[in-house]
C-alpha cells in the first residue's frame, strides 16, 4: 500500500537524483556532438544545446528537463497515494529536482540554471500557477527579447500567483525556486544591468565561448 505520509527526506532524495540526469549532455553525446559543456555558455540546458544547430535536440532537452521536474513531483504524489497527500511532499520533490539539475552529482555539481525544470514543477504541483508563469515568460520574451529577464520575471511572480491560486507549501517552495534562479542568473543580471546581455535570436557574432559564458537561461 502507498503511504500518504511519505517522509520528506525520501521525496527530496528521489527528486534530486531524477533532476540530476543531464539530458542535454546525454542527447548531444549520443548524437555525436561531443561535450555540450565545451561550447557556447558551457551549460547543459536547451538554450546551449540549440547552439549546436540541432533544434530537435534542443526541443527534446527542453521537454525532458521540464518533464523530470514534473515527474519528480507527480511520482512523489503517486508513491504517497495521490489522495490525502500532504502538498508539501510533491513540492519538496520538485524543488529537489531543480537543485539536482543545477548541481548534479554526476557532473561535480556543475549543472544548468533550472528554468525549464522549475516550470515543469510549477505545472505539476499547481498547474494554474504554472500556466500563469509560462504566459508571463512569453509576454516578457516577446516585449523585451531577453530570455533571462523573462525567466526571472516569471519565477519571481510565481509565489504571488501561488498565494492567490494554491497553498502555503507552494508559496514557500516557489519562493525558494525564485531565489535559486536569481542566484544562478547573477551573471545575466549583471549583463542586463550593463546592457550587454544578448537578446533572443541574437547571434554571438563569432565570439569565443568565454565571451558568452553563462548566457544560457535554461
Automatic annotation (TrEMBL):
Q: Which GO terms describe its cellular component?
A: plasma membrane
Membrane topology listed for this record? Multi-pass membrane protein
Q: Any idea which UniProt keywords this protein has?
A: Acyltransferase, Cell membrane, Lipid biosynthesis, Lipid metabolism, Membrane, Phospholipid biosynthesis, Phospholipid metabolism, Transferase, Transmembrane, Transmembrane helix
What is the main EC category here? transferase
Q: What is its EC number?
A: 2.3.1.275
Membrane-spanning regions, if any? 6-27, 57-82, 88-107, 119-140, 160-183
Q: What is its main location?
A: membrane
A GO MF annotation of the entry reads:
acyl-phosphate glycerol-3-phosphate acyltransferase activity
Q: What does this protein do?
A: Catalyzes the transfer of an acyl group from acyl-phosphate (acyl-PO(4)) to glycerol-3-phosphate (G3P) to form lysophosphatidic acid (LPA). This enzyme utilizes acyl-phosphate as fatty acyl donor, but not acyl-CoA or acyl-ACP.
- What quaternary structure, including any partners, is listed in this protein's UniProt entry? Probably interacts with PlsX.
Name listed for the protein in its UniProt record: Glycerol-3-phosphate acyltransferase
Q: Which organism is it from?
A: Rhodospira trueperi
**Chain's gene name:** plsY
Amino acid at each position: 500500500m502507498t503511504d500518504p505520509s511519505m517522509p520528506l527526506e525520501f521525496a527530496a532524495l528521489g527528486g534530486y537524483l531524477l533532476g540530476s540526469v543531464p539530458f542535454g549532455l546525454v542527447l548531444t553525446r549520443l548524437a555525436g556532438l561531443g561535450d555540450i559543456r565545451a561550447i557556447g555558455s558551457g551549460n547543459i540546458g536547451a538554450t546551449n544545446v540549440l547552439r549546436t544547430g540541432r533544434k530537435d535536440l534542443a526541443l527534446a532537452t527542453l521537454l525532458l528537463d521540464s518533464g523530470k521536474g514534473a515527474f519528480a513531483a507527480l511520482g512523489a504524489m503517486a508513491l504517497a497515494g495521490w489522495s490525502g497527500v500532504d502538498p508539501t511532499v510533491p513540492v519538496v520533490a520538485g524543488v529537489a529536482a531543480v537543485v539536482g539539475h543545477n548541481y548534479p552529482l554526476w557532473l561535480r555539481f556543475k549543472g544548468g540554471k533550472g528554468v525549464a525544470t522549475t516550470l515543469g514543477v510549477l505545472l505539476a504541483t499547481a498547474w494554474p500557477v504554472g500556466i500563469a508563469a509560462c504566459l508571463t515568460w512569453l509576454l516578457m520574451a516577446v516585449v523585451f527579447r531577453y530570455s533571462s529577464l523573462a525567466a526571472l520575471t516569471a519565477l519571481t511572480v510565481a509565489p504571488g500567483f501561488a498565494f492567490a491560486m494554491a497553498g502555503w507549501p507552494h508559496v514557500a517552495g516557489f519562493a525558494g525556486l525564485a531565489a535559486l534562479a536569481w542566484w544562478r542568473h547573477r551573471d545575466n543580471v549583471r549583463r542586463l544591468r550593463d546592457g550587454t546581455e544578448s537578446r533572443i535570436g541574437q547571434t554571438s557574432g563569432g565570439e569565443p565561448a568565454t565571451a558568452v559564458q553563462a548566457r544560457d537561461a535554461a
